[in-house]
């Protein structure tokens, strides 16, 4: 028991007195609204006290940093040894423009890189594909071949800075380019560090960057996990992502549950398909969460995530290496919480969301720029977003002590509640036969669609507030400068792709694509062949077309 | 004009996968009593136009959040025109800067809906403005 009998008795007595007072006050004038709930619509009590956490077991449920269940963090020193990584997601236009942005961010004190690719790259098409028309460089950087990639990492110390790449169906290809670029710069694969998102399950659930059906998609993920475990030991081969699940409209509980159940699915697949011991690869699994507007719900969610993962790894998968029990994660503030109306308010939203992520113990953070609701971020907007993190780290004092909200009646109680509700979902998905089976039934997709619709109805009814949207609406427009990627980027990119095609050795390209095809057919690991192919200047689409040919294409079923 | 049952296709052109808005609207139209066809993500303008004709819809609602709306939205209008179906109205939504509105109206878009719009207001616009196809 967490509290002594005496404490609980006196608390019970005093609570009665407080409740009587509350009744008297309410009799004179009711609360502003009858029901108070989180942004995810989880009902919150007026007050939390010792009785709300009395059933907790200190050793099993809370403990110390660096100790099971890691709710208080993986590292014994907290942020004193190192702040979270300031990692701004960026990519725009072509490789040269993005490289310039990267150097600017590093000069401004960013400590890690994060790559946004444009839609053709994300979907495995070259810029000159008819399907890519109008998209080049619009949402991120356009990469067709290793030639572009070498420009992207020009002047970047790849053995010192870690780089995250948000890439999913073509993750093998872009990671192969990173590996090839390092080798061409004379840096061995054992020295490079970073992350590929490479989380296909959440694509089917939420983000919809789709290429092949679920089973072969997970096979390619397992290839990267195996290759990383054997050859690129500092690389996080999956970033198991709740971010997009949340952005698609999920509640905090759904984000937590679906993300962690996705993680379990990958663990099971690598063990089954590759025959690796869990501790041979699990330490390099990483996670990625959203930090939304509801301050305490987010902090509780991140704390619960660490505890659920530690329990799952220790008890469900019998992992013996403590590093496998650590949930290491990146966080991004919630794009979907920002408003095009009165866009400067987005700075405040992002700041409070970033603060929640830090109080939840994130290891890495992207803060959205105020203009991201309208366009790619400008230099000025991205600098404010980066400074937001630096102010939190170095001015507010929240990094002075580890997990400062531990022991709060409310935060611990909410952490427990989110964990319990997440396990309910996890067990339900277990009963369905796992996440791939659940996705095929449309289960997580429709749960999220329900939540998204419910939230929109609440906004329309004024039950949930978005400032500038359904309250404190301003008649005055507040225009901000917009970054535009014009069509010449597409024309230039196609020209340079054509130039690469002219100068490369077509026979070598063909041979290496054949090797990838054979590996796919035999179930071998594609990674060594991908590295060979990109070195021969095979394009993103040429390699992805092999996957499409062998594995088939997946069509979005359009569930709503 | 509001007596007939509106038949609407909600469509996601291009490579963009941000489908939260499209799916919320599809459900909202269904709840409003419309007949709804949702294409799912990653449709080409050709596929959308062909499907709209095959499904005999009154209106197509396009959603794009990738920034490619200046190419994709007019392309759908053009594909419908080429197939002799320019009486199917096309409306759009997503992340669309104000400065692009006139360009898109000139290209034949009948209305544009951007973040912050109320579902009821969108439904009402459809009820007031969408004609039954002959």
From TrEMBL, chain A:
The keyword Protein transport does not apply. One of its GO terms (molecular function) is methylmalonyl-CoA mutase activity. InterPro entries: Cbl-dep_enz_cat, MeMalonylCoA_mutase_a/b_cat, MMCoA_mutase_a_cat. Residues 38-553 form the Methylmalonyl-CoA mutase alpha/beta chain catalytic domain. It comes from the Bacteria. The keyword Iron does not apply. Keywords: Isomerase. Pfam families: MM_CoA_mutase. PANTHER family: METHYLMALONYL-COA MUTASE, LARGE SUBUNIT, METHYLMALONYL-COA MUTASE, MITOCHONDRIAL-RELATED. This is Methylmalonyl-CoA mutase. It comes from Desulfobotulus alkaliphilus.
TrEMBL record, chain B:
One of its GO terms (molecular function) is metal ion binding. Keywords: Cobalamin, Cobalt, Isomerase, Metal-binding. Its cofactor is adenosylcob(III)alamin. Residues 5-133 form the B12-binding domain. InterPro entries: Acid_CoA_mut_C, Cobalamin-bd, Cobalamin-bd_sf. Pfam families: B12-binding. NCBIfam families: acid_CoA_mut_C. This is Methylmalonyl-CoA mutase C-terminal domain/subunit. The lineage of its organism: Bacteria, Pseudomonadati, Thermodesulfobacteriota, Desulfobacteria, Desulfobacterales.
